[in-house]
Specification:
Layout: H1 3-11, H2 18-30, H3 35-48, H4 52-63, E1 78-83, H5 91-101, E2 105-110, H6 120-124, H7 136-145, E3 148-152, H8 159-169, H9 177-190, E4 195-202, H10 211-227, E5 231-238, E6 246-247, H11 249-260, H12 266-282, H13 289-301, H14 304-315, H15 320-324, E7 334-339, E8 344-349, H16 351-363, E9 377-380, E10 387-388, E11 393-399, H17 402-415, E12 416-419, E13 429-434, E14 443-445
Parallel strand pairs: 1-2, 1-4, 2-3, 4-5
Antiparallel strand pairs: 5-13, 6-9, 7-11, 8-10, 8-12, 9-11, 13-14
Helix pairs in contact: 1-3, 2-4, 4-9, 5-11, 5-12, 5-14, 9-10, 12-13, 16-17
The structure holds uracil.
Length: about 450
């Protein structure tokens, strides 16, 4: 067998065998198959697709390319959530402390920002001293002692995904359904949680643009998880406009802290509560989603979720004072408002454009390894459907310099649209996809 044969077979639209998939992934992980062949193969997969069986086999080969944590001997039950990537998506920072406060163990491996989407680790590093480079031993110890861990993916875990993802990012091969499913699920399966809630984003600021496409991806990932004996739920959530108000690392941490204190924006709070509720149900801590929501509100109301967040920050070396007093978080030099130039109803706030504006301000990376500025970002003051008068504030831009502000202001201005006639608000969720083990294996309208 050789790599060219496998690439040509996929290029010509044939189904690969288990042996061929293993040969390719093992060879690529070892470095025997060079990046240019792996890129050609990824493009062939993007164009020709994969059967469900091939996608399962690819996920398995990627899981087995590295270390796998078995948490069953460590804690009773560990849960995890994963978002496919969005703009202003600081949900993890709120959901994980909520469910940890309700007694679930949460061991999460998070990523960094990619393209226009932000990354949880970058956000958390707005808190001085916070580090996420935990060894497997430290991850397990913290999971036992604190019940909540937020670490980076170690080089040993699903290394095939780490290598392939960086190639996909620069070869136009990210938005492939089987490649995304195998990438997400290989990390989730390798890191050992027994129950997983997936937040599959759909819309302008997501890799999946249509609900139909997002639903296919969600169903595929749910089935992959179930084949590996995980309890699975997937939610399809709207990502046409940014989630919540803040987009940018420190701004998002501040909003997460506000939300944990019961003061954040309603839409973001509702989104977080919904995901926490499903985690509580899938882990048998809540009798129903309604009960899960009530528990989540209680953890916020009593301050126990905020306490868990403080413990997490302290356990990973972060400055507690910044969490207790978020005005100590990094702040940009130039903070100025962008105003509406006409009256009417907000019809669009393009999440992708807002995400790209934040990257351009320095809050994200143009290439791997670039340093980022935690202080910069954009606050979105109006959502789709809101009425607005000309001259009212629409965005607040946090920039390093006046010139950066001008460029960002022009870009966010172009990213929004105001119409004369009333515009319906956007839903937070489009659908819930329950795994067989969760209930009827059906899709429920959100
Ligand atoms: N997130 C991942 O982890 N992998 C992908 O391929 C896309 C989003």
């Amino acid at each position: 067998m050789n790599a060219v044969d496998v690439i040509e077979k996929k290029r010509d639209g044939h189904e690969l065998t288990e042996a061929e998939i293993r040969f390719f992934i093992e060879g690529f992980t070892r470095g025997d198959i060079p990046d240019y062949q792996a890129s050609a193969w990824a493009m062939a997969v993007l164009l020709r697709g994969m059967t469900e069986r091939e996608t399962f086999l690819l996920t398995q080969a990627m899981v087995e390319s590295g270390e796998q944590i078995d948490l069953s001997d460590v804690v009773d039950y560990a849960v995890d959530k994963h978002s496919t990537g969005g703009v202003g998506d600081k949900t993890t920072l709120v959901v994980e402390p909520i469910v940890a406060a309700q007694g679930l163990r949460v061991g999460k491996m998070s990523g960094r920002g990619l393209s226009f989407t932000g990354g949880t680790l970058d956000k958390m590093e707005s808190i001085a001293g916070f580090h996420s480079d935990l060894t497997t031993g430290e991850f397990i110890r913290q999971l036992r002692e604190v019940g909540l861990v937020l670490s980076g993916q170690t080089a040993e875990m699903a290394p095939a995904d780490g290598k392939l993802y960086s190639l996909r990012d620069v070869t136009g091969t990210v938005p492939s359904l089987p490649l995304i499913a195998a990438s997400v699920m290989s990390k989730k399966l390798a890191s050992g949680a027994q129950a997983i809630v997936l937040d599959v984003k759909v819309g302008l600021g997501a890799f999946m643009q249509s609900v139909k496409e997002a639903e296919r991806l969600a169903r595929l990932m749910v089935r992959i998880g179930e084949q590996a004996d995980r309890r699975m739920v997937a939610l399809l959530s709207d990502m046409n406009q940014p989630l919540g108000r803040g987009v940018g690392n420190a701004l998002e941490v501040r909003e997460a802290i506000d939300t944990l204190r019961g003061e954040g924006p309603e839409d973001f709070k509702e989104h977080s509560v919904e995901i926490a509720a499903h985690l509580l149900v899938v882990a048998d801590r809540a009798e129903s989603v309604e009960d899960g929501r009530a528990q989540a509100h209680e953890a916020i109301g009593r301050g126990t979720a905020f306490e868990k967040f403080l413990l997490l920050v302290e356990a990973q070396g972060g400055d507690r004072a910044m969490v207790e007093n978020p005005s100590l978080l990094p702040r940009a030099n130039v903070v100025q408002t962008v105003h509406a130039t006409r009256s009417g109803y907000v019809a669009q706030v393009d999440a992708r454009e807002v995400g790209l504006t934040v990257v351009e301000l320095g809050g994200g990376r143009l290439k791997k390894g670039d340093p980022i500025d935690h202080a910069v970002g954009v606050e979105v003051l109006r959502n789709v459907g809101d009425p607005i008068e000309a001259g009212e504030p629409l965005f607040i831009v946090h920039a390093r310099t006046p010139a950066d502000f001008d460029a960002a202001a022009a870009r966010v201005h172009a990213a929004h649209r105001i119409e004369e006639e009333p515009v319906p608000t956007l839903p937070l969720f489009h659908a819930t996809i329950l795994g067989e083990s969760s209930e009827a294996g059906s899709m429920a309208d959100a």
